[in-house]
Amino acid sequence: MTAQISFEMQARDGLARTGVISTPRGEIRTPAFMPVGTAATVKAMMPESVRATGADILLGNTYHLMLRPGAERIDRLGGLHKFMNWDRPILTDSGGFQVMSLAGLRKLTEKGVTFKSHIDGSKHELTPERSMEIQKLLGSDIVMCFDECPALPATDKAVAESMRLSMRWAERSKEAFGDRPGHALFGIMQGGVTPELREESAEALKAIGFDGYAVGGLAVGEGQEAMFGVLDYAPGLLPEDKPRYLMGVGKPDDIVGAVKRGIDMMDCVLPSRSGRTGQVFTRCGVLNIKNARHQDDPRPLDEACTCPACRHYSRAYLHHVFRSQEIISSMLLTWHNLHYFQDIMAGMREAIAAGRFAEWEAGFHAGRAAGDIEPL
Ligand SMILES: [Zn+2]
C-alpha cells in the first residue's frame, strides 16, 4: 500500500508494455481493462463478481452520477466506493464526452458547457472547475481532465480549435485539482486524426504535467484503421514513464491492437452491454445466443472458459433464458464477456512479460479466424 499513485513498468515487448499502477486502494495490473459502472453499478453484476472476473479498477461516469443521484448526495453517503460497495480503485471520466453524446441543448463557451439533462430536462453546467469538484465529491482515485471531444469527421480547423480549448481546460483542471496525495489526474490528448495537432496537444499536456495521459477523441466512429493510424504514433508522443489510457475502446481486436501500440489502460461498455443483448465474445470470435442453432446444444459457450456461465450452463440453457427474457441471462452473459475480456488482458500481460507478445497475438487472431464451433 502506498499514499501516492505511481506507475512501475515491468517489461516491454516491442511497443507493448506491462506494469503496475499502485494506489492506496490497491494495485492495477497493466495493460488493464476497466469495466464501466455508469450509474454506480456494472449492470447485472455484483461488485464482488466484477472483481472475480479479474478487474482491478472500474470506471464511473461523472455525467450520469451528477444528474442522478447527484455528487453531493454520494459525498454525504460516504463517497462512490462505499455507496456502490467497491473498495478498489475507480477512475471517473470528466463528463465532457457524455454531455456531447447524451445531453440536449448544449451551449459551449470558453467557460464550459451548459446543457439539459437527458433524464428530466433540468439545466446544468459543467466547467473544468465543477468537473474536478464532482470527481472529488465522488472520491475518484483517477480523475480525468474536463475536455471537449468533437465528433468526427470534422474540419482540421474545427478539430484544432476544439483541441486548443481542451488544452486551456486541461490547465484549469490541473489548477482546480490542486494537490491531492493518493489521487491522480490524467490529461487527455486531442487532435483528431491529424499528427501535427496530436503533437501540439501532447506538448501542451506535458508542459502542464499529469500523472497519466489519455488518448482522447478516438472510438467515436472513425473506424479501426483510422484509430490504429493515430495509435501508430500518438502513444509515442506521451511520456514513457506514465500510464497511457485509450478511452472508450473497444472490441477485443481493438484492445489487442492498442496494447501492441503502447496503450496501458482501456474501458468500454461493450462486454457488459453485449451481455444484455445476447452477443457473446469468445476465443473463437462472436456468437449470438438468440440464434436457434443453440437451442439443443448441451455444450458451454467456450470449453476453455472458467467463468460460471461456461462451467455450469449449456448454450441451450443460455439460449432459453435469453429468449425468455430472464434476468439471469444478462447476469451470466455479462459475467462471461467480462471474464473473457479480462482473460485477454491477463494473456497479454503474461506474454509481454515473457517476451512473446507476437506469438500470443498470432494465436489470438487464429482463434478468431477459426470461428465458433460447428453446430451439432
Ligand atoms: Zn465463460
TrEMBL record:
Gene Ontology molecular function: any one: tRNA-guanosine(34) queuine transglycosylase activity
Principal EC category: transferase
Co-factor(s): Zn(2+)
Pathway(s) of this molecule: tRNA modification; tRNA-queuosine biosynthesis
Catalytic reactions on record: 7-aminomethyl-7-carbaguanine + guanosine(34) in tRNA = 7-aminomethyl-7-carbaguanosine(34) in tRNA + guanine
Sequence positions that bind Zn(2+): 305, 307, 310, 336
Keyword Repeat assigned: no
Active site location: 93, 267
Residues that, per the record, bind substrate: 93-97, 147, 190, 217
Protein keywords: Glycosyltransferase, Metal-binding, Queuosine biosynthesis, Transferase, tRNA processing, Zinc
CC annotations in GO: cytosol
Function noted in UniProt: Catalyzes the base-exchange of a guanine (G) residue with the queuine precursor 7-aminomethyl-7-deazaguanine (PreQ1) at position 34 (anticodon wobble position) in tRNAs with GU(N) anticodons (tRNA-Asp, -Asn, -His and -Tyr). Catalysis occurs through a double-displacement mechanism. The nucleophile active site attacks the C1' of nucleotide 34 to detach the guanine base from the RNA, forming a covalent enzyme-RNA intermediate. The proton acceptor active site deprotonates the incoming PreQ1, allowing a nucleophilic attack on the C1' of the ribose to form the product.
Family recorded in the similarity comment: Belongs to the queuine tRNA-ribosyltransferase family.
Full protein name: Queuine tRNA-ribosyltransferase
Phylogenetic placement of the source organism: Bacteria, Pseudomonadati, Pseudomonadota, Alphaproteobacteria, Rhodobacterales
